[in-house]
Amino acid sequence: MGLSREALVEAARGLALHPEDGLLFAEAAKAAIEVKDGPSLRQLCARRSEEAPLDPAPDRYLGLYSLHVDGAPLQAQAHFEAALRKDSSDAESEAALREIAVRLQSPPERTAPEAASSQFADLAKLLKSDLIFDSGRSREGRSPLGASSPPLPSPIPGARDLDRLSAVPSVGAPSIPGFRSAPVR
User: Fold this and answer.
1) What is the rounded CA–CA span in Å between residue 77 and residue 101?
2) pLDDT tens-digit profile of 132-173?
3) pLDDT tens string 120-136
4) CATH number for position 92
5) Residue 95 included in any domain
6) What DSSP letter does each residue of 10-75 carry, written as one string?
7) Which of these three, 60, 85, 103, is where a domain ends?
């Protein structure tokens, strides 16, 4: 990073003498991104935009900083779109916008409420058993875990609520007293 900081300082000195130099600007902008110096990059880009208003590079470098350093893909998208407004053939900005589109893809669709309610009902059926609701004795009078197993001291806490889970309403919310679900649209 020390070399990048030095490169940034030297490039800034060179730009003070030759603000029209696009190569010097590019090196300074890359160095500012590498050392994560956002204020210097913004200052460099503002000067470059004044010097060459149709150059897409300042917006592109601000987009790269927003995307890779700030982790702000929407802000980066705005910068890349601004670069493309200045030069519609800016391949680097187009590629960055494609990368952002991939990053911003929505998560997989959720399960429909009807399917979710049947999942809750199936889960309740699996969890509901004689082990949970009796004192440890099976219907035949033996311990469910074998002849030598001691009976369970008491039902598992909360097990009695499983009966209510098997009657899940069609909107996908368990039937819990005092709980109201929003209508599904």
Assistant:
1) 9
2) 444 444 445 454 555 555 555 555 566 555 555 544 454 544
3) 666 565 555 544 444 44
4) 1.25.40.10
5) yes
6) HHHHHHHH-TT-HHHHHHHHHHHHHTT-HHHHHHHHHHHHHH-TT-SHHHHHHHHHIIIII--HHH
7) 103
